[in-house]
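hey all, quick one before standup. I had two proteins in the batch that finished overnight and I want to keep them in one place so we stop losing track of which output belongs to which input. First protein below, input sequence then C-alpha cells straight from the run.
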Amino acid sequence: MQEKIIILDFGSQYTQLIARRVRELNTYCEILPYNKFPDNQEGIKGVILSGSPFSVNQPEAFKPNLSLIKGRFPLLGICYGAQLLAQMGGGKVEQSNTREYGRAHLSQFDHDDVLLKGVRTHSQVWMSHGDTITEIPDNFRIIAGTEEVQIAAYRIKNEDTWAVQFHPEVYHSEDGVIILNNFVQHICKCKQDWTPASYIEATVADLKAQLQNDSVVLGLSGGVDSTVAAVLLHKAIGTNLHCIFVDNGLLRKNEFDIVLENYKTLGINVKGVDASQRFYQTLAGVTEPEQKRKIIGKGFIDVFDEEAHKLPNIRWLAQGTIYPDCIESLSITGMVIKSHHNVGGLPEKMQLKVVEPLKLLFKDEVRRVGKALAIPDVLLQRHPFPGPGLGVRILGEVTPEKVRVLQEADYIFIEGLKNEGLYNQIWQAGAILLPVQSVGVMGDERTYENAIALRAVLSTDGMTADWAKLPYSFLGRISNEIINKVKGVNRVVYDISSKPPATIEWE
C-alpha cells in the first residue's frame, strides 16, 4: 500500500513547491483541488492545506467541508490554510495594519512542540499575506510568533492539527524543510521510503499487470521524459514496445542520427522516420506562431498514425506525461492555465488506450528515476526542447535554409556550453533566428545579414526561470565563432529576460 500525503490546492503559486519539498523527503504526495478529497482514503497519512490568492473574508473564497479530514488525519494548514482553520474554529482573521510580505523571523516559539523541533531561534521565514489571525479559539495554542505577527503558528489542543501563517516550502524559509519533515515523519508517521528504486519496482509491476501481452506504441523525442518512459515500458513488456522517432526537419544538427544511435545502446525497439520535406512543404509561407505550432502538431500526428498502423496489434499509446503536465492543466477557477505538453488528438485519432508511466513525477524526479535505470547522461541530462522544435525558434516563415542557419548557430552555442563545463548548470539553452537583418562589415565588404539571439536560463521546473549570467568572455567567443562560421549571420545578441514576464521560448 502506497503511503501518501494529500495537498489540497486553494490556488497558491507555491502549491507545486509544497509537493516538491514533500517528495524530497522520500514521501509520495498528490495535489488535489481543495474540494476533491478522495473517497478512497487508503494510504493517506496526512493532509496539507495550501495558500491561496484569496482572503478568507472574501465572498468568493474557497471554504470546503473539512469534516472528513479535520480530527481524522494529521493536518497542516499553510498561510490561507492556517487562516481558514482559525476562522472555521471561531477565531478572527482581519486585514492587518502591518502586512507581512517577504522575510520575517520567528520569535517566542515553543521549542518543545513537535512541529518546531530543531527550528532555530530567530529562524527566517517567508511571509506572503495581507490578512492576519487576530484571535484564536480557546482550544487553539500559539506555538510561534514573529516581530510583527503574534500568531505565526498554532496547533489545536488534543488534535493532530497544526498551522503556520508563513510558507515553509520556499527557499527563503531557512528551517522550512525541518518543519515539513517534522510533520511528515513525526506527526504523520510516514516511513519515507518512496525512492527512485521503489518507484521503478512498483511502476514496472503495475505496467505488467495493466498491459499484459498487449503491444504499445510510443513517440520518442530524444528528450528525458520520453526516454525514461520508454525504458520503464521496455523493462515491463520488452519487445511489445514499439517506438517511433519522427524527424520533422526541425531538430538540432545531427540530432536524428545521434538519438537513434543512443537508443540502440539501450536495446529499445525504435524506428526512425525522416519526414522533414513533408513538414517544410506544409510550413511554407506560414508566419503566425500558433498556426505553425498547429501545423507541426498535426503533421506529427499524421506521420505517427501512418507509421503506427504498419505495426501489428497495437492496443496502447504511451506518452511521457509528467506530473506538472497534469496539474498545470487543472485550474480550480475553471480556466485552463496551459495547454497539454503532449501532442493532443493522438488517442482519439488512433482509438488507443493511453498509458503514462511518468504521470506521478516532477522533472527532477524523472531524472533521478532515469539515473537509477542507468540511462546514459547524454540522454538524461539533455536540456528540454520544445515539441515544435526549431519551428518556434525561427521567428517568421520556416524554410530549409533558415533551419540550416539556426542549426549551425545552435550547434556552436550548445557545444560551447558543453566544452566550457556550463551545459549541466543550465536548465535550457538554444539559439533563435530573428526576422531582422542588420548592417555589418566583413573584411572590406558591407553585409546585410541575419541576427541570432542566444538564450540560456536557470530553473528547476520551467515554471519560472532566470537568465543565466554566462561569462562575458564565453559569450564573446561564441558570438565570434557563430559570425565567422555560419554563413548568413553577422550579429549575435544575448537574451537577458526572465520568466515571468518573458517566456523561455520566443514563440
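OK second protein, same deal, sequence then C-alpha cells:
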Amino acid sequence: MKQVTIWIGALVVGAVLGILGIAWLDDVMNFVATVYTRLFQLLAVPTIVLAVITTFATFGSKGSGRIFGRTLTYTLLTTFAAAAVGAILFVLVAPSNLPQLGEANVAEMLPEEAQKLLPHSGEAGWGLHILSVIPNNIVKPFLEGNVLSLLLLAFAIGIGLSKLPDSENKSVVVKGLLGLQDLLFLLIRGLIWTLPLGIVAFSAQLSAQVSAGVVADSIGKYVLVVLGGNVIQFFIILPLFLLARGLNPIHVLGRMMPAVLMALFTKSSAATLPVTMESAEQRVGVRKEIARFVLPICTTINMNGCAAFILVTSLFVMQNGGTPLTLGTILLWILISVVSAIGNAGVPMGCFFLTLSLMSSIGAPIAILGIILPIYTIIDMVETAENVWSDSCVCAMTDHDLR
C-alpha cells in the first residue's frame, strides 16, 4: 500500500509540474524521462530472452508424459483465449488516443531495422516481414532489439535445453542462465526502487500536452477493456472449458474459492500455491499425483491474465504511438503476448515490466505506462485471481481426462 501511495503521489506531482508550463522544468523532466526510457531499453532484451529461455528449459525436468501434455495443451488454449478476448474487447470499446501522442506515426520514426517489427500490408510485405523474423545471425537480433527474432531464438534455445539429457554440461548452462537472471532481477529491483522519479517525469511530459478530461476518458476505457476481459475470461470462458470436459464450473469454483480469494489479496500465484494444492486435493478431489505435478507447472507458465494485459496494453501504447492496428498486427501481438506471458514467471512486477520491455524495444511511447502504473495494483489483483482460477481449471480438466 505504501508503494502504491508513493506512485500515486509521484503521478500527481508530475502532473502539476507539467501543467506549470515552465520551460526549463519541462526540459529537465524530458531529460529524466529519456534516461528512464534508455534504462528500460537496456534491460528489455535480457528480460525477455532470459525469462523465456529459463521457463521453457525447465520443461525437461518436469517430465513429458501424458499429464504434462494435457497441462501444456490446456495452458496454451486458455491463454490464447484470454488474449483473444482482450483483443476483441479492445476493438469493440476502442479506447481513444491521448492527444498529441497519436499524431506522429511511430513506424516512420523508428530506425529502418526496427521497422521490420511492424507488419506490412500486402503479400510481399508479409513475406518480407516473416523473413525478417527468421535470424541469419545470432548476434544481430540482440543488437537490433528485434522482439520476434529474440522470442524465436529464446523459444528454440529453451526447448532445446529441455530436451538435452541431464548432464554436467547442461547443468552448467542452465545454472549460468539462472544466475544471469538473478543478476538481472537485482538490477530491475534497483530500477523499480527509483521508479517514482521516472513516474514524475513521465507524468509531467504527458500533462504538459494533454487535458485531464481526455486522459480520464482514454485511460478509463483502457482499464474497462483490461478488467472486462478478465471478468469474461473468469466467469464465461474458463467455465465453458470445464463444461466441455463434463465438469461443473460452479462446483469447482466453489471448492477452489479459498485459493482464488487468497490470490486476489496476495497478488502472488506462487504464494497461493500451497492453498491451491490443498483445495484441489481436499476440496475438489483431484488426485495428489496430478495436483502436485500440474499446479506447480501452471503457476510457472499458465498466465491468462498476464497475456490479456500484455496484449491490451501493447495495443493501447502502439495505437498512441501512431502504429496502425490492422488485423494482422493484432494477431501477431496475440502470439507475442502468449509466448511472453508463458515466459513471464519470476519477473518482478510481472507482466507490467515485461510489457514495458516489449514496448521499449520497438520504440513505442512508454510514458503512457507511467500513467497506468498506479492503477496496476488493482489490475494485478484481478489478474492473479484469474491466473489461479485458470490453474485450477487446467488441473481439474487434466485429472478428469486421465481418470
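Flagging for whoever picks this up: Residues 101-126 have pLDDT under 50 and may be disordered. Residues 138 and 153 are 8 Å apart (CA to CA).
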